[in-house]
Design brief:
4 helices, 7-stranded antiparallel beta sheet, alpha+beta, binds zinc ion, globular, 21% helix
Length: 163
């Protein structure tokens, strides 16, 4: 199914994506168990229905990201926690720039990377996405062809314990 999202036109095989998330993968919070991850699993349920419906329409289980981390430091001006992560989808990017661009290249050839501001697509306030051809921590057996959706969420801290 074709989705137009900001500058992106993506073609997603929803059934194969949904089947993968249903049958494979374990919630990263179950694996990690740290309070940041446990908070994410609870806090993501407070996302606007339009955001939850969007991920569901793609077949993605929001609790089964290969990685989700919160940037150390952490509360934004609104007192929300900033989470970054990514999900893989079965499909292709038909149009749109890869989200990542190379920043500083050091003498030893290593380099920094960042997501281009112009690539971010806002689903709702505090929920942004972008797409890339990267395959970070690609799950074993993830079907081809696949793309990576980068996600940027600002979520409340709702665990009783302090962060
Ligand atoms: Zn964790």
């Amino acid at each position: 199914m074709i989705f137009t999202l900001g500058q992106y036109i993506i073609d997603i095989d929803i059934e194969r994506t949904r089947a993968f998330y249903r049958e494979h993968g374990v919630s990263f919070a179950e694996i990690c168990g740290c309070s940041d991850c446990i908070n994410y699993v609870k806090a993501i349920k407070t996302a606007p229905p339009s955001v939850l419906d969007f991920f569901d329409s793609l077949g993605v289980d929001l609790c089964k990201a290969p990685e989700m981390f919160n940037v150390i430091g952490d509360y934004d001006a609104n007192g929300l926690i900033y989470y970054e992560g990514f999900f893989h989808l079965v499909g292709e990017i038909l149009e749109g720039e890869d989200a990542w661009e190379t920043g500083e290249v050091r003498e030893d050839g290593s380099y920094t990377e960042h997501v281009k501001e112009s690539c971010l697509h806002q689903l709702a306030p505090n929920f942004q996405i972008a797409f890339s051809h990267k395959e970070n921590l690609l799950e074993e057996g993830f079907p081809d062809p696949h793309i990576q959706m980068e996600v940027f969420f600002h979520l409340p801290w709702i665990l009783n314990e302090n962060k």
